[in-house]
Amino acid sequence: MTNESMTALVEFQIRPETTSLTDWLEVWNKRAEDARDGEPETTAYAASVNVENELNVLVYERYQNGSSSLKAHSERPAHAALMETMGAANMTKRRVMSTRFVDLPDYGWWGRPGSGSASTDTGCMLIVVGLRLETDALEAFIRLSAEHADYCRDNEPDTLIYSGGIAAADADREIDVKKGDLIFVMGTTDEAARQRHAEDPKHLVLGPRMSAKGVEPVVTFRRTYRTTGNGFLWRD
To answer: How far apart are CA 6 and CA 102, in angstroms?
Structure first.
C-alpha cells in the first residue's frame, strides 16, 4: 500500500441488453460530480470510451495520497449508491481490465489547469501504453523521456497529459502488466493533436536516441480512448 500519488485505470463493458452508453454515463456521472465536490484528494476521475469498442468505458482515476485517498473515495455514500444502482439495473456486463501505478515524481505532467482547455471536454484522446524494460534500461528510458516531456510541455499546448508511473502489481486480466512495468499516459485535445505529437521531429528522433543507448522497451499493451465529457481529467 502506498500514500504516494497513484493512478488507477479500470475499464468496464456495459451490458447493451439492459442499458445504453448514454444511460450508463448518466448514472456514473453522479458519482463523478460527488468526487469533484467532496473528494479533494481525488485529482482525476473521468470516463472515456475505448475507440476500438464503444461498449467499453475506461474510468481514469488519480489519487493524491495513493491508497488512503482511494479508501476515502471507496467509502463515500455516493460510491455505494453507484454500485447499488448499476447492480440493480444490471448495467455492467464485466470488468475488462484494471491496473494501478505509482506516479513517477518530477516526470512529465498530469494536466493543464488554467490553460483554457476544459478537463471535461468531449473528444480528447487518452493513450495508455505498457512498457517493460530491465532496471538499468528503465532508468535510462525515464531520464530520456522526461527530457522529451519537458519539450512537449513547452511546445505542444494541445498535449494535455504526458506522464506515467510504475505498476504496483500484476494486472489481473486482459492486459499484460507485471509489477515494475512502466505505464505511460498521454492525453491530447483531439486526434489531430496526437498526430502532430507523433510527427514532431523531436519525437521522431527519440526512438533512435534510445536505441543508440541500448534502451529497447517491449510494448506490452496499447489502448486508446476518447473522453466523454463526464468527470474531470484534472482539477482547475
So the answer is: 4
Q: What is the DSSP letter of 217?
A: P
Report CA Rg, the chain.
18
Q: What is the pLDDT of residue 119?
A: 80
Amino acid at position 103, single letter: D
Per the structure block, which three cell numbers stand in for 196? 502532430
Beta bridge partners of 45: 61, 232
User: pTM for the full model?
Assistant: 0.94
C-alpha distance from residue 51 to each of 114, 123, 183 (Å): 28, 11, 19
Do residues 108 and 164 touch, judged by C-beta distance below 8 A? Answer: yes
* Residues lower than pLDDT 70 in the chain: 1-2, 116-117
pLDDT value at residue 116: 67
User: What pLDDT shows up at residue 114?
Assistant: 83
Cell of 173: 486480466
Q: Are 156 and 196 in contact (CB under 8 A)?
A: yes
Distances (CA, A) of 209 to 25, 71, 145, 194, 202: 43, 41, 10, 21, 10
